[in-house]
Amino acid sequence: MSKDAPGAVLTSVMWDWSVYYTQAVQSVIDGTWSGENYFGGMADGLVDIAPLSDLCAEGTQEAVEAARNQIVKDGFNVFDGVIETNDGSTVGAEGSTLSDADITGNMNWYFKNVVVK
pTM to 2 decimals? Predict the structure, then answer.
């Protein structure tokens, strides 16, 4: 994305679909293919972020690495627990994670710090 908005992009998401395809093809070969939805993430290498641009403030790289380590090594999930929305209501429950169905089909809310104009 930085080539399209060089003065605005801090980083971008990167998808490595070979992680999924390798697992899917191997399951077909093994006769264990189920066809169920796949929700991979950073921990299994499907998702990562591009190197930060020079637009980022000093210390941003360290903060990003700390957050990335929390996700990959500690299993942090942004959809865990009670989440406050921008209208003051909440979704989710303490000690649980939003279901994949809720994440992919029922997110009709914004996080608390998103301002709609």
Answer: 0.71
